[in-house]
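TA notes. Do not distribute before section.
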Amino acid sequence: MAKIVLIPSLVAAKNIDSLNQSFLDSANDYDNGMVFKAGAYDSAKQTYTPAAIGSGELHDVYMAFSPEDSIMTDEMGNQYKIGLNDPRNFTNSKGLVFSAYRPQVGDKILISADGIEGTADDYAVVAAGENKLQYASAAVSGLSYKVLDDSAYISIGGASAIGTQRVAAVLLECVAI
């Protein structure tokens, strides 16, 4: 399964801190671009637990997005962040705190095609029980994105050159939350 690459091109959460939250899940990994609800809050760790999107709970959804840093841990437990050339190798690993933001109407994101399931259509929406966006013919009463460009791409750098690979992507604009 390919990893999702997310570029938040124009999102309100870049300027409004309250739209960003910290999450911690000890059982599951999350790719950037995956969607979920905020579950239980742990006041000691100041994090939420990601929760599945239930039927009728398509509002107040969060989207995972952390900088594509890989973390190495040495034998003594010290953690180091190293550079990552290919964001397709990145995931928010279980047991580590990661960031997510709450999309707002007008947000524009560029997400790799692997981040949306189904047959290409006019909208990408959240669905109950799913952690990826789903293609749909119309917006739903909940988080919905209009497909602006389904032939976009994300340039990925290699070890020796920038932009040597292209990843199929879709440009989306949030039209409902």
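Switch to the second chain here.
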Amino acid sequence: MTWPGYARFVFLLRSILAAMMVPALAACATVAEPTTTPPTITIPITTTTSTTTTSTIPPPQTCDPPAFLPTILPDRVIDDQPDVSAVPLDDFTLQPGTIVTGWTDAAGSPVLVMVRGALPPTRWVATPEAIAVRGTEAAVGDLGDGIWGVAWFEGADRCDEYYLVFYPPTGPEEARKVAESLTGSG
């Protein structure tokens, strides 16, 4: 290669490299700050240690007591009249807006609880058996840990939902017998 040919080659190579470097250098260059302030959105950051919460959903209204009670109770129940102190504080009884009635045994342990205003807050352990309660289809089944339940609803309103919780020792026969004894209106 002769000197003029070599010089043209180097010049061409420099031109190509320069053309490739201009966009890269332009991307890395700093741009002067504009003189106007851009619009901003302020997102408030709150950090509180308060345990109070607010909700836009009003708490459910408490249902009235049912106008019916079982006419047959488990043999271990000591009094046929419900006892408010018999209601255990568990997942079955601590549902907002429900009304709960309970019965105990001689030791004061819960035997049976009747809840109006919700359905059981847990799934059945196995497929429940269909029975009739107050002329309505109901389900009786194992709720786990030896607890049995009967659930049914009599209308579209939340206060038309009912369930019975039977605490151990119990079984499906006892649950069915007590549930089928429910009579009355409302």
